């Protein structure tokens, strides 16, 4: 739940995996001479859901690939009117929690206990998939960290060699200079 000031836009972003079901439900307070629009986009600005002049509604989509998705609410006020803040209530569900298991149970003629077991099975699969994804990300981050550490090590060795070389050159140059000016022997 959040407040949306007049003639402003508020966006919420989340990174989602491929083939994830997203169900959203929203409710916007009504104000005279004001409209609120919403739009759901991905990082390439493809519109997945959109509606104008909303007060209450739902949206549903399935992600086609792993991407960052954005839900934006835009308040619009007529130019000759003074606007007030909208109160926006947004409830999103994704993955297992977004599935309608009652409909699945009725279609497959499952008992309530079997439906609950199916829900728990899907939930445990989702947890396992999340752990696999976390493990893959941890491996990627560890590899990046080790690679960066090696590069910094080689850069510091190179810069130390350059500094030592320049220091030796400076000593030899100054020694030659002072000998030519006959300041030292």
TrEMBL record:
Compartment(s): Membrane
Any single Gene Ontology cellular-component annotation: membrane
Chief localisation class: membrane
Annotated PROSITE patterns: GOLD (PS50866)
Membrane-topology descriptor: Single-pass type I membrane protein
TM region(s), chain numbering: 152-174
Keyword set includes Metal-binding: no
InterPro entries: Emp24-like, GOLD_dom
Keywords on record: Developmental protein, Membrane, Signal, Transmembrane, Transmembrane helix
Signal peptide: none
Residue intervals of the GOLD domain: 9-119
Similarity-based family: Belongs to the EMP24/GP25L family.
Record-linked PANTHER family: TRANSMEMBRANE EMP24 DOMAIN-CONTAINING PROTEIN
Protein name per its UniProtKB record: GOLD domain-containing protein
Source organism per UniProt: Ranatra chinensis
